Structures are given as structure tokens and as C-alpha cells.
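Q: My collaborator sent me two sequences in one message, no labels, and asked for predicted structures for both. Can we handle them in order? The first one she listed is below.
A: Yes, handling them in the order given. First sequence, followed by its C-alpha cells:
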Amino acid sequence: MNEENVKKIWTYIQQAGDKLVGKLPPSDYHPKGRNPYAHVAICVKNKFGQTYKQIPDKRLIEVIEYIDYLVENPS
């Protein structure tokens, strides 16, 4: 992604993380609580096979829609 879109996605990830604070189910791997910001970034990486910075610009809307999905379906 170009620098402008990277900033847009990062801001969107932060906003999604804000919405997910306290909503992610507990995990034995995270006894002190889960980091919703890292959760969103890792889910994006797992879904698209690359970090949000590496995803092509043409998939920007798809990434945003997926982040919306994560907020609506915390897991």
C-alpha cells in the first residue's frame, strides 16, 4: 500500500481496537488480557497472507470491510 493508505488502515485498526477493548473472549495464552489492536492486525495478516502495509492498494476496501467484520464478530 502507498503511505497514505497505510496511515488510513492503521488509524482504522486503532479505532477497531478501541471498539474491541474488553470484548474479546479470555484466552489461556493471554492471562493478563488480550490486546485488541494486535488482534486486529494479526487477523488482517492471517486473512490476507501479508501485513496491512504489504497488501495492494486495490484491496483497501476489502481490508476495511474485514476490519468491520472483526469488530462486529469479536473472537
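Q: And the one she listed second?
A: Here it is, processed independently of the first:
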Amino acid sequence: MIPFGYAIRNLFRDTKRLLQTTLGSALVVFLVMVAAILNSGMTRVLSASGSPRNAILLGAGSEDSTLRSEISERAAGIAESSLAGLAEVAGTRAVSPEIHQMTLVSSGSSGGRQAFVRGVTPRATLVHRRLVVTEGEFVSPGSIMVGRLAWKRLRLPRESLQPGRTLVVEDVPLKIAGIFAAPGTVMESEIWMDLNDLRALSLREHLSCVVLRLTEDSIADVDLFTKQRLDLELAALRESDYFAGLSDFYAPIRSMTWLTALLIATGALLGGLNTIYAAFSPRIREIATLQAIGYHRGAIMFSLVQESTLATLAGSILAALAAVLLLDGLTVSFSIGSFDLQVTPWVALVGLGTGVGLGIIGTIPPGLRCLLPPVHSALRSPT
């Protein structure tokens, strides 16, 4: 085997080429890490938003979106009195009738933005167990409560969404009663208001859904209830299955991020091949000399791969540092919520693997071009 120091010395023979390779690979790795962070963040928030202990009653035919669902208001009372497997807290059954709506929200001094508004009753805390009021108090008639990430979704200063301030929902000013957190869920970018207030504001006569907290994971009884009460036109889903369906719905978007990163990586790889070809071409005689003194072609190729991989790994480290400094903790919004970007060990591993792949794949074609000519002709090469 060729000593490792040989690859290191060759790496610094041309500092300009080393800098070009390192920065080019850093850019590619960074873009791949961005795709990985976005995909893992969206998947994480959607998978964490639904509880397997919760069931959702939706309008039949609207199982893919609570925003399109409409069910009779009496469905909540009928389900509460008919189902035996519902959880209870202090004698109150965990049944939450809700209205979900995308509507225009503004601070009054700025243009409005679409936000997810949820109309609830105090019973919502019985089914949404991750919700914690961190400031102020729970929503009451004439007021609203905002998620801790709502200010980022609305692109407003954080101070404008503090308790006591006012938000305009569909031209109606409402006082902010409190701020809530629901770690890892899409609810953190929502706005909650009293169920009757939202019903009057949106001129709706129907609910969007009823969320039930079950004593066991099975929803067989709930599903049987929807089949028996055909007059209510209901469908039942486990809450975790509902959000899994949403994750599948957003799969094409996640695929597009990977495809974009792959196309950019391919373009950069082709450019890198030209750079490595130009770097290896003057070394044909040197490589032939190594063969002449007894080194096998495999050992020489391995040394060339080491040389390039060191440069791309340095680029991977730069990309990881950039991702931590620029992306970690950044909040990204999509149609139904927001999530914080996290540079997880898996993301770092994806970046490391990309750097190694660039070093190996980018070296093999130019390396073979230098190794394949016969030794006697390569020794007479003018380059």
C-alpha cells in the first residue's frame, strides 16, 4: 500500500484546486443536508401530531382533510352518550367538538395572512394532551389563544402576539388571552378561539370534526358507531392515521426537494470530474512511475481516492457547520403548520455519506484514465 502521507502531500500540491474542490463539495453537501432536514422535519412533526389514543369523527368522504369535513353538531353529543370506551377526567368525558378553518389573520397594522384557526371548547385539553398554556390563560368567548410559533407563521414581530395584544380575525379584533405550546406538533402555529365565536364568524352550522380520547388504542367501537349511525354520515379515523395520510399527501413535495438536491449534486459532480481530470492529467508519468517501482494499480487508485475524499470530507465538515449555524432552530411553515429545523445525527450522517460518495465517484473515472495506459507509453508521456 502507498503510505497515507503521499495522499496528504499531493493534496496540498495545488492549494487553488484544493480550495475549489473543498468549497464545491461543501455546497453540494449543504444542499443535500437541507433536503434531509426539510424531509425529516416535516415527517417528524406530522408523525408526532397524532395520538394513537385519539379518534377523529369526520364527514364521510372527507377523511383526508378536516378543513373540508362537515358533520352535524349533534354528532358530538350522540358519540359521547353512545360510546363506552371514552376516557374521562374528573367525571368529564374526553370529547372535543371542533371547527377547523383557514382564514385571514392580521395585526391590524399589517396585511393579513392565511392561518389555521381552530374553534374549541375547554374540553379540547382533555383530548390534546400535549397542549400546555405557557402564558396567560385558556381561550374564552371574545378572545383567542395563539401557538408559540404563530408569530413566525404570520410573519409578525413576536411582541405583537403577546397576551393582552389584539389580532384581527376576518375583520373582527380579538384579544389574545394566552400562548400555548404543543411540542413537536403542527398545533404550535395555530390560533385557537371559542367554538361559538368561530361558528358565528364563519357563519357555519356544522362542525369540522369531533376528537375523542379513548381508554384503549383500538377504535373498533368508534368505527362500529359510525356504521350504525348512517344518519350522521360519519367516518372514523385514528388521529395518528389521519396525520400519516397527510404525510403521504406531502410526499411529492419531499420527493421534489430530494430530486432538486440530486440534480444539483449531479451537476456539481460533473464539474468536479473536469477539475479532477485536469489535476490528474499532469501526473500520468508520476502514476506510471509508481507502477514501475512495484505498486499495483489498485493501491494507486486507493491512494487517489484517499486524496480526493479528504478534500470532500473537509467540505462536508464546512457544510455541517454552515447547517448548524444557519439552519438549526429555524422555523419553516407549510400549509397546515410549522416546524423547527433540526440538524440531527441522521442528517449529519447523510452529509458525511454524500461527501464520501463525491470523493469516491469523482475520482474513479479520471483515475482510470491515468492508470489504463501501458506503463512504457505512460512513462514517455510529455505531461
